[in-house]
Write a structure and sequence with these properties.
The protein is mostly beta strands. The protein contains 2 helices and 15 strands. The chain is 8% helix and 45% strand. The strands form 4 sheets. A 6-stranded antiparallel beta sheet has the order 2-3-13-10-8-5. A 5-stranded mixed beta sheet has the order 1-12-11-7-6, covered by helices on one side. Strands 4-9 form a two-stranded antiparallel sheet.
Length: 156
Amino acid sequence: MPASAPTTLADLSRRSGLDVLDHLEREVAIPVVDGLQAQGDLIVVPYAFVARAVTPLSTTWREVLAEGVELLRSAAGGNPHTLVADPGTCRWTEDVRDTMGLALGMIETSAVAYLIHPEHGGTGIAPGRYVVRRQRERDTERIGRFGNLGNRMIAD
């Protein structure tokens, strides 16, 4: 059986109805990753990496449809990070506890799912269970009464 052709950014945009900015090459194949991956201010983490810190709290999952689920809109109400998948292959929940307070939710997918963002393009998520978290970085400015270094969320 021949392997299917890789999904391009143009394919993903056409299937989801979501567009990307003109500076992105639409005929590029979207990589599919089964490990850590980042897209702007989001990071997708295989559940096994964070299972001690992240727990789904209920069985309330919703199906991800081709038009997608908006996971996060970037700072100041800008462009959304949207999760898209073929019907019946992927589900999403925001009902999680994360001891670090970074989780936006969890993904379970039996086929490749995609994140699409107008500025960043697309990334493929291999079948599996993942936690979607906000990214943070160490702040170089001293904060607080004792001048401690803190963390701040990455905002794109």
